[in-house]
Amino acid sequence: MSVAARVTEAAAKPEFRPRWNQPTLTSTVVKAVVLAVTVVVMIYPFLYVIAQSFAAPPGEGTGFSLDAYASVLSGGIVVRALLVSIGVTVVGTLLSVVLTILLAYGLMNTREVPGGRVILYLVLFTMLFGAGIIPNYLLVKELGLLDSYWSLILPGAISAFNMVVIRNFFQGIPRELIECARIDGANDWQILSLIMVPLSKGVIAVIALFYGVAYWNDFFSAMIYLNDTAKWPVQLVLNQYVLQGTPLTQLQNPAAPPPPAKSVQMAVVVLATVPILIVYPFLQRFFTKGVLTGAVKG
After folding, report:
1. Distance CA 144, CA 154 (A)
2. Which candidate, 220, 242, 244, places its Cα nearest to that of 232?
3. Please, what is the end-to-end C-alpha distance for the chain in angstroms?
4. Nearest partner of 203 among 127, 281, 292, judged by Cα
5. CA-to-CA distance for 218 and 233, rounded, in angstroms?
6. What pTM, to 2 d.p., does this model score?
7. What is the DSSP letter of 275?
8. Which residue has the higher pLDDT, 246 or 202?
9. 3-state secondary structure 13-81
10. CATH number for the domain harbouring residue 83
11. 116 touches 106 (CB < 8 A)
């Protein structure tokens, strides 16, 4: 029997499963129930927040109202905070991705870089131990970054974990491509920009998402380094209003009944969450390309 015939015969046979691993009606129903409960548990908080943000003031007949959003956006504080967060996230993500790619490429082969192994160990050391809040604050202060947006970006511009991820992906790219490019006269900048980065779009998109989410959700750095409330990002505003109860909004119409405090709080939560969720659909296609690129070698 030929090899092709054996492969065809093996493929035609039903997959063998032990008796304890065979699907039954009971196991299927249990899996479906567990999955449905998990979905409900995960989705219910989001639906609750959105529903509360559209709740009408007491005394109105309808249960749907945009008064909470009008009240939040009319004050100007949340709008300014959103713009600050968007600016810090965009600039910080771009800078972090570029610096991480450069560092990962430079440490891709430590034998070719003088002291490369020592530099790699120093970078990995930061994954285990941190300087602490007070030393970081003193460093930011000595650099003159207090009350500056750069204090939210530069201290965490490079993540050692993200650098390791990109470095490992770079090492998985066939060396023949790099050697052929060097034979054709390409320098390191050309190899990085024309070969390494195009082949690594998927992993770079993932790393950019990691950085973007970290910058968007960071409020602790702003709480330490920023004294000017006009420079606060939306997460710090959200923390001060929702958790501390500080009033941040003004009524668009003082004669109208104010929206419920819970609705205003939930409206701030929605406004602080939606922008980062919009990014996911645009990165989905890069994830797919990254998987396909990583599966093809040679």
Report:
1. 12
2. 220
3. 33
4. 292
5. 9
6. 0.76
7. H
8. 202
9. CCCCCCHHHCCCHHHHHHHHHHHHHHHHHHHHHHHHHHHHHCECCCCCCCCECCHHHHHHHHHCHHHHH
10. 1.10.3720.10
11. yes
Residues 175, 120 share a domain: yes
* Token digits of residue 223: 């709480």
Nearest to 265 by CA among 81, 78, 83, 62: 78
3-state secondary structure of 102: helix
Q: What is the dihedral of CA 161, 166, 168, 174, to 10 degrees?
A: 180
Instruction: Provide, rounded to the nearest whole percent, the portion of the chain with pLDDT above 70.
Output: 78
Domain range for 28 is 21-53
- CA torsion 161-167-171-172 (nearest 10°) is 60
User: How far does CA 53 lie from the centroid of its chain?
Assistant: 25
In the block, residue with structure tokens 């470095």 = 167
pLDDT value of residue 91: 95
Query: SS3 for 165?
Result: helix
Please, which contacts does 32-41 make with residues 24 or more away whose CB atoms are closer than 8 Å? none
In this structure, the answer to whether residues 157 and 39 fall within a common structural domain is no
* Residues with Cβ within 8 Å of residue 215, at least 6 apart in sequence: 88, 89, 92, 93, 96, 152, 153
- Residue type for 9, please? E
pLDDT at position 93 is 94
Domains in the chain, number = 2
Taking each helix axis as running N to C, give the angle between helix 201-217 and helix 160-172, from 0 to 180 degrees, rounded to the nearest 10: 170
Does 196 map to a domain? Answer: yes
